[in-house]
Amino acid sequence: MIDDPHVGLGHLMIAIAEPHKEGLEAYHRWFEREHMYSAVLVGPGAFAAERYVAPQALKSLRYPKDSEVFPKLDAGSFVALYDLVEGSVEEHFAWSYAQTARLDAAGRTNRDRDLVLTWLCDYRGRVARDADSVPPEIALDHPYRGLVMVWLEARDEDATRPLEEWLESEYLPRSLVASPIDQVQLFAPRDFPEPTEDVPLTPGSIAPNPWKARGRLLLYFLDQAPQSAWSTHFAKLGDAISASGLGRVALAAPFLPTRRGTRDHLDTLWS
Q: How far apart are CA 135 and CA 223, in angstroms?
């Protein structure tokens, strides 16, 4: 995969949540006006973030229907992605765990949501459509029209590297030609660092990741809304991965970028 040695992108943190209907407005305002910044972006090593939303119409496109990535396939209305500088994981989370405790003690938290998935990943590289595609460290700040997250499970641990090589050399370069997909970034899941202090972390937020041995994550950044590209570029992705004999699609899920400071899409999360 294209790997620019000058860029700072080294790690990705993912937080996927399902808000409670009764507290939706308060949760939404708290997350984008408080939490994204005070709990992550002002910390060491964090340099970019974006938040995405899945209205019910996009949730209905997710597959496979028996996916085990999310506890429920239609959970996970909001996704927050955070980019971290290479090598900053230990420093960032030493700060983050203590910061979480400080914010909680100050009443600057919101519990009107359920955590669906929280992952920490290492950046493995990317495949870009064009020579002048957006650099990977700018992707979360670029005004892309859509995001598709694809969780992969390798056939076994020995197939993980061959799966990456096949994606890099064959499948992704071919599938990006004349497509609305500007780039695909590849990440490998890892465990969060263990807390060094007795801090009141959200239950499940740093649980051991059962996917780290065989799992991979692809982030597709699109120049158009994902529903417009779904049938042509994503509906058969699962078949293509399975046909390689190297793994399977554990979950493919499309999202739209939020327009921060607005309540766009809040009335279409479940209808």
A: 15
- Before 64, cis peptide (omega within 30)? yes
Question: CA torsion sign, 76 to 77 to 78 to 81?
Answer: positive
Cβ–Cβ under 8 Å, residues 271 and 56: yes
Domain assignment present for residue 184? The answer is yes
What are residue 225's phi and psi, to 5 degrees?
Answer: -60, 140
Tell me how many domains the chain contains: 1
- Tell whether 2 is covered by a domain: no
> Tens digit of pLDDT for each residue in 127-153?
999 999 999 999 999 999 999 999 999
Query: Average pLDDT in the 63-67 region?
Result: 97
Give the pLDDT of residue 5.
46
Provide the pLDDT confidence category of residue 2 given band limits of 50, 70 and 90: very low
Mean pLDDT of 248-268: 97
CA distances (Å), origin 23, targets 26, 48, 90, 113, 193: 6, 27, 33, 8, 31
Least Cα distance to 152 among 166, 139, 134, 138 occurs for: 166
